[in-house]
Amino acid sequence: MGFMGMLWAGRANKPVSRPEKRMHIMFGIRAIVPGVFVRSVTMTCPLWLDTASRHGVLALLVCALLFSLQGMVIGEDAAVILVNSNSGQAVPDDGLISLWEAIESANVGGVPAVIRFSPELAGTVIDVSEQLPSVEASDITVDGDIDGDGTPDITIRNRTGEIKDGITVASGSNVTIRGLHIRDFRGGIIVNGDGGNVLIENNHVEVDATTLPIPPISDVDRRGIEPYGVPTGMTIRNNVVTMPARGNYNGLPFPYASWQSGCTFRVGSWGDTEPGDVARNLEITGNTFRNCEIGFDIRRNSCTIEDATIAKNIVTGQIGLNTGLTPNANPDETPHTQAMRHVRILQNRMSTTDRHLQIMTRGGQGHELSDILIAENDLQDCRGVSVQDQSSGAVLDIRFEGNVLRNCGDGINVQAAAQNPNPVRIDIAGNEISGGNAGISLLNCRDIVTRDNILEFNTGNGISADNCIGEHRANVIRFNGGHGMSVVGAQRCGIVASIIHENGRCGISSRRTANMTISHCSITKNVREGIYFSGVVNGGILPPLLTGADSSSVSGTVTAPDGSLIEIFSDSEDEGETYLGSAVVAGGSFVFTGFIPTSGHVTATVTHPDGNTSIFSTPLSPSVDVGNWFLH
Question: Average per-residue pLDDT in the chain?
């Protein structure tokens, strides 16, 4: 079984009379792998034994056997290796156990092992002068949280500046790295996740650039946490990664800060992956990434990711340093079909960064981004949320729900591949986007729904949809510097029940568009036209000509065919602030009957049975006195 039980006895230091002479028995269980110390536990027998009696001697032997067996079971369940030295290397025959020696012992022990630290080492710095051994066996835990409060109590420091990585996991399953403060390594925690069930939690990885020389550019690719491989079960939670800010390397400029990564998850990299390999059950939650050019990055290489949750992470830093959260589906031009499926990106906070929360495909064909939910994230002073398909056409099924983006350059930006033969389903609902360059930008999306979004105070357009098919419903689009909506090249598009007010250009601007329906919207006080068509749009359909209006009816003529739908609006000027109702064209004319405000103007649009809607008609002022009409 790889160990032997050892038993020893010692006389109690207690004066007793001879008839009651007894012995206090101490039993020790020492689990030993040849040549390497693994575990030592001392226990006190709770019995007082009469050594003058043969029964007492027999009881002593039975007790010893029970304790030996107990030690054997505990040893196989989880051998506890107690680090009681702050040495950063192995020191033979010093009677102490260093972290170096503990990792080596755990690797060869053949049983599950938990590496803990003596309470006397709380707050200790372990200075490492050589690369620590890698964790190479399964069922190993390294736990530096001595008092169990969820924060590191042990610091591992690279004082020479020459050691590449702090803690490395080369192989094995059921591995936990917890409660360590890892400073000034090129890579803080590097983990091969092929074995599965890896947990990295409550660590603080830090580069204190004020104490280090400027490294050569080849050594500046610093990674806080870097898992790789094709894991089944990988959890990275409640860690803090802090990188140096630009210009803060020993007080001198540090121009290479853009290579710093809080957590780069190279799924499938650095290993032998085959088409069909699947990384499953990934959880990245509750982490904080500071001053990282890439806060969090998933990169695929010839494999598929399924069932991943990226939630409640915080990414902060200086402008120009942070990429933020970047789950990046990157097949690197391989011919293999790959996918990201069932991914949840929830309740993350990203601020003062220069990049996106981004999902991307590159190269190849037949890739898939399906059942992706990006919801309730809070982004401020960054470049927003971006989904880009740069392959030959991927399956896209992505939802954006309840995100808040303030002062974010691109808002929500979705770019699908041109002439993509695959389904592209995008649902953008309940988001608040303000203060950026654009609200929502869409390209080549053939099944798009935007609904219940608030898009305001952006310097560009509220919504830009280029070569997209779908519906925009119940959005509030106001106070933007560009168009409320810009629609280009759409073949089927619906704009329904939306509020489009006080934008710096047109309410809705369209070119090269057919079958665009505009219905039940409130469009008013935009600097230019409420609805503007550039060139031949919607088959060249002409607006109605209003011929009469009073407090109870509106009438007019139209060139659209019978069955076309007329929508009537009231407005203070020449747009359509309040929807009043509708009428159907018959014989080239129409009459709408209903309440008509007599202040301001009435306008109308017509929608052809094929779905093409016109611009607003010339406004008409209804008369208070029936039959007394004004034409403006």
Answer: 79
